[in-house]
Amino acid sequence: MDVAFIIETIVKIVVILLIFSALAGLGTYFERKVLAFMQRRLGPMHVGPFGLLQVAADGIKLFTKEDIIPQNVVKPIFKIAPVITAATAFMASAAIPFWPQFTVFGYTVHPIVADINVGILYVLGVMAIGLYGPLLGGMASANKWSLISAARSAAIFISYEVISGLSLLAPLMMVGSLSLIDINNYQAGGIGNWIVWSQPVAFILFWIAAFAETGRTPFHLVANDHEIIDGFGTEYSGMRWGMFFIGEYANMFFISFVIAIIFLGGFGDGTIAGAIQLLLKVAFFFFFFLWTRAAWPDIRPDQLMWLCWKVLMPIAVINIVVTGIVMMF
To answer: What is the domain count for the chain?
Structure first.
């Protein structure tokens, strides 16, 4: 195997880990600021200019806080659960093209760890495995609130995963490929070629499912703070709790990239302007996650399952049938 390829792959993995771990911390800052603005508060202000160093302060607190393991927990599973959540979030990034290819000193860099031909299937599959973190953490915690959280995660998991898969079938039928690079290139002709114009129903369905996939309001049901304390994270402290936290925010960024690439043209034809547009699209979707938290209350688990099975799934199936009929003619 080419040595340069191995070095490039290792560098890309390290860069993704460092950048998105840092972005997870910055994401908490922006969330607190956005929520404060919408609720007529100031948010972080005292640690550093405009409270920017609050991110570093929170990081130091997580790294130095005592790692408490309660006496009655199932220790091996209790310890590995946060690792599953964080690891699967970053594993999902392997098939996501974050930037168009560019050349440095005559060497062409491809900002994707692995351009596999089933990229979107891999991303959704690995992100789905991440649910085992909260599930195992809740079941191993010897805490009734954590157990309720684990039961909720098992109950609602299949509901939104079905919608995620069905909503993507129609656009994938049009593209004829599961590679995110191919999906991006399919829309390279400009804004008029974006899949969102031909598949607005699929776009809305997948966007709704993304909120459940990332556990964000109004589908913040697995760790619903005002009902079950911190759910699966109730017994966790220090960096173990922080790994759950990093996994959640990393997933928000990664799913934002996926939505932008599949439905909104990605980085287009690969120019700098297209790359900047991709980052702006991702920033908008991330902001929308925060905006929704400030504007919407959480729903009940039975309401989520009712919405997925009785409303969204029939709409997704009808959309697939209509797409198939249109493609035939």
So the answer is: 1
For residue 148, what are the domain limits? 3-328
Q: How far apart are CA 102 and CA 35, in angstroms?
A: 37
CA 135 distance to own-chain centroid? 17
Q: Which of 284, 244, 298, 292 is nearest to 35 (CA)?
A: 292
The dihedral of CA 122, 128, 129, 130: what is its sign?
Answer: positive
Q: What share of the chain is helix, strand, coil (3-state, %, to 5)?
A: 70, 0, 25
pLDDT, tens only, 180-228: 999 999 998 889 999 999 999 999 999 999 998 888 888 877 777 667 6
Instruction: Identify the CA nearest to 158 among candidates 313, 296, 263.
Output: 313
CA 90/CA 300 separation, integer angstroms? 29
Strands, E, within 226-290: which ranges? none
Cα(250)–Cα(256) distance, integer angstroms: 10
pTM, full prediction: 0.92
CA 83, CA 177: separation in Å to the nearest integer? 32
Q: Tell me: the pLDDT tens digits for 51-77? A: 889 988 988 888 888 888 888 889 999
Give Cβ neighbours of residue 226 (< 8 Å, ≥ 6 apart).
298
